TrEMBL record:
Annotated Basic and acidic residues bias: 33-56
Domain of life, source organism: Bacteria
Protein name as annotated: Cbb3-type cytochrome c oxidase subunit 3
Transmembrane portions of the chain: 6-24
Disordered: annotated segments: 31-56
Keyword field: Membrane, Transmembrane, Transmembrane helix
């Protein structure tokens, strides 16, 4: 293997390790609840409250 192939393999392995670390951090249980909070806030905003539309 020449130096370009070794460099390419090294960069590919490095990027794979970074990707695996991001996936592991995103899907671990301790982080999951914190990551779901914005979704539930947006879902709550979609449902109008009674005091938002007093004319109906």
């Amino acid at each position: 293997m020449d130096s370009a192939s070794i460099y390419y393999l090294g960069v590919t392995l490095f990027l794979f390790i970074v990707f695996a670390a991001i996936v592991a951090r995103t899907y671990r249980k301790a982080h999951r609840a914190k990551g779901e909070e914005p979704k539930f806030r947006m879902m709550d905003d979609d449902q109008p409250k009674k005091h938002d539309h007093p004319e109906t």
